[in-house]
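job 3f2a | input accepted
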Amino acid sequence: MILDSLFKHKPAPLQPFKTSPGKLRAYRQCPLKYKFTQIDGRKTDAKPSPHLAFDAAVNGMLESFQAKLLAGRTEITETALLSELNRVWRSDKFTDPEEEKLFRADAEKAAENMTRWFRDATGTVLIYQNKPAIGMFAPWYPRPLTLWTRLDRVETLPDNSIRVIDFKSGARETSAAELRSDMGVRIQAMAAREMFGKSVSSIAMVYARSGNIEEIPLKMLDLEFLTADVKSIVQDIQNNRFEPNPGPLCSVCDFMEECRGWRKKLPWKQAGETRDTYQNRLRLSYSKMSLFERCPRAYHALYHEKIPPKPQPFFSFGSCIHAVMEDFYDPASREKPTRDRLMTLLEEQWRHFRAGYRSTEEEERYRAEAVRMLEMYYRQFIENKPFKPAAQIERYFELPVGSDSIMTGFIDRIDTLPKGGSIVLDYKTEPTERTQEAVDSDLQLTLYYWAAREFLGLDIRKLGLYMMSHDTLMLTSRTADDVPPLLERISDVSQRIQNETAFEPRINKYCLSCDHLVGCPLEQQIRNDASLRSMEFTDDDGNDNFSGDDL
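job 3f2a | predicted structure (551 res):
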């Protein structure tokens, strides 16, 4: 019987399979939606997307310009690039004329910056099989799989090495540390090596909006993990693991109404509205509320000007600890994980969260702190104690508030209590301690209490903060009487955001770590304030699970 059980759970060998970085990314975003579109072949309604239209226009401009340049039909001038932009621009992809005007201005700025980039470029486009290597598709064969990826530009450098260029139209510029573990970048690198051999020495992101370039040698990429990373995803696909993954992108998903991840609790129906009307509400999260209340100027920069946050070590540190705990308490776990397993999870996750560290020494200092935290946690809460996996982890919620706002967020962990009911648990990696009074009045925990009851239908008996740096679990509780003040606070902040016009700066304890300190009207006052400090070993107060989807 034991042997039968072992064979029953042994993974089936991988079958031949063709895929791409985009399809793998789609599966990781939501396995169920991947099944609907890629396995079942179901079509989605083609809705105009200004971001996709902008991306297509900028990349189309760059590709057609290069083709004409190589054919001797044009020269490197801003006028030439703008001519190509005019040819590929699609006004019908924009539903809001003012929005189109903003995107068009960004595209014209990209043409200006890329003119300088082409003039300064030291590489020469590679000719492959009598064709210029621009906008080409290249394969990578991690047997028995085949992956196809696009290479925007492949060029030969003065030292005869080969560099792959990926043109990026987005506002956010990725650091080299982030590129190391990026699956799409690593697949591009392997495909280029497959096609052009070991002469391929580096891959570079060229950001069209600024003309900046971020280059990383292939030897710095986490290529030794890539085959296992890709095969793990394909294994899940071939084993029919298609669970929904609720999150912010669900708001624009065509399959939301039939998704079992929503349990038929569709937020616009709860509000008594059509889906289109509901989408006009202001989307809020605890982090958005907190940021606006701390500093309207910083809020405006992030959510109105769409300036992405800069990578910071404390964000990477906190995100890594959360990811480790998510894996450790996986609801599908069948046995108690060992301390070694916990440390292995840290090593596996660390390579995905390396952005923002200013030096190897700084990264190692944070890594040592992560080891210290997790070892303390294991001794205090796992060792010599019964273990039970979480009932739910990283559970997304979305609920309408009042007549004009939506509250969204993720709950770190929900456990089932032995005597009935549930407990909501949140991890904090901040260095400061909290008083019981502060925990009892914590607005974020009140929000999670309300969301777990209202959205998930759970009987929440307790709530707790794991203060990871101090090896403590601080417990508290809430009642239904705590909810109305929370909803009033959300509605009040929503109204203030929508009525705000000046977005003036406000001094707060995070000013010295603010991305927008330089040029702030209060900059000198902030720098002269000895009571302010830079953030360290914290993720929650400063970022609170920030996602690019919030932009």
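job 3f2a | Residues 168 and 207 are 5 Å apart (CA to CA).
job 3f2a | closed
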